[in-house]
Known about the structure:
This protein is α/β, with parallel strands linked by helices. Helices cover 38% and strands 13% of the residues. The protein has a seven-stranded mixed β-sheet with strand order 1-9-8-5-4-2-3, sandwiched between helices. The site of pyridoxal-5'-phosphate (PLP) has 15 residues, from α3 and α4.
Amino acid sequence: xxxxxxxxxxxxxxxxxxxxxxxxxxxxxxxxxxxxxxxxxxxxxxxxxxxxxxxxxxxxxxxxxxxxxxxxxxxxxxxxxxxxxxxxxxxxxxxxxxxxxxxxxxxxxxxxxxxxxxxxxxxxxxxxxxxxxxxxxxxxxxxxxxxxxxxxxxxxxxxxxxxxxxxxxxxxxxxxxxxxxxxxxxxxxxxxxxxxxxxxxxxxxxxxxxxxxxxxxxxxxxxxxxxxxxxxxxxxxxxxxxxxxxxxxxxxxxxxxxxxxxxxxxxxxxxxxxxxxxxxxxxxxxxxxxxxxxxxxxxxxxxxxxxxxxxxxxxxxxxxxxxxxxxxxxxxxxxxxxxxxxxxxxxxxxxxxxxxxxxxxxxxxxxxxxxxxxxxxxxxxxxxxxxxxxxxxx
Length: 394
Ligand SMILES: *Cc1c(COP(=O)(O)O)cnc(C)c1O
């Protein structure tokens, strides 16, 4: 129209994630299997679910896997199977997704928030040790962003205190610590297969893995209305609920599991590029422990003036996320559990910014994200406010 064309090219959008790219990759095998499963009337449970449970247990190096409806139920049922309930206190990092805490409150226990390490933003053994009280019955270690917490050290603390240890591995499919996978140092590890996770279904899904056959059986019974299975369809030994993995999700997960290592390798290449380009710059990178086999579910950095940086990135076609903008203990339903000061979690919540991270992101796109992030931070740093950039080319 009357406006003259902009001097800069229209920016190519870099999406925050691309779940459809993963679906397209597995569809040739998975699509046909889903049709077969549905036409054979396998909807809930059945051979596809059993096959996935076996594959996921094997992948995790665990004896047992129980498929569930979602990751929140995995944590809830793990707590319940460990007899955690009213009167009990459960330690949980303040920097986590709210589901970890929801599960604690849902079983009637009381969450006790623990602050996180300023470098990794993960829960630490000393942090947990300092928070234990006579009422503490369990601790949940959350492997946030794809990096495992120091499980050997954390397990030493919980063992000495005689309390149960649970892992929230919803963001840590395939992550390791000193070469060991999730689940080696805890009673039970909980996974989510929400579509956006590193291993994601075509809907909701979750699982627990454990070496303890009794715990696995209890979770399975609880997740199926307290039934022990077999012929006794209407005999309910425990008061359970309905939290089962279905056939469609199990087939999708088995198909994607074949690609998980390749997809993790792609995430690692992207993360390496981000580190190479951004280290020492205005955005503070999270620390990766040398013992951690990071699977980069998210690539979070910390920036000053986040709202402005994020707005500029959006203007330039780069989508970002925030994980998480409000720490759990500041969420209205959980405020009454906030006791101790949690300065690291609070400061991080105001500065965290998650950059695009998914297996099909190209290194060219990652470079583009870095260029735009550095430019956005630079504009802020020199005090030049938004609006002046559009004239930069003239
Ligand atoms: C996604 C997630 C959960 C919950 O999993 P759902 O399958 O969405 O119920 C729990 N904890 C963490 C850290 C998560 O990221």
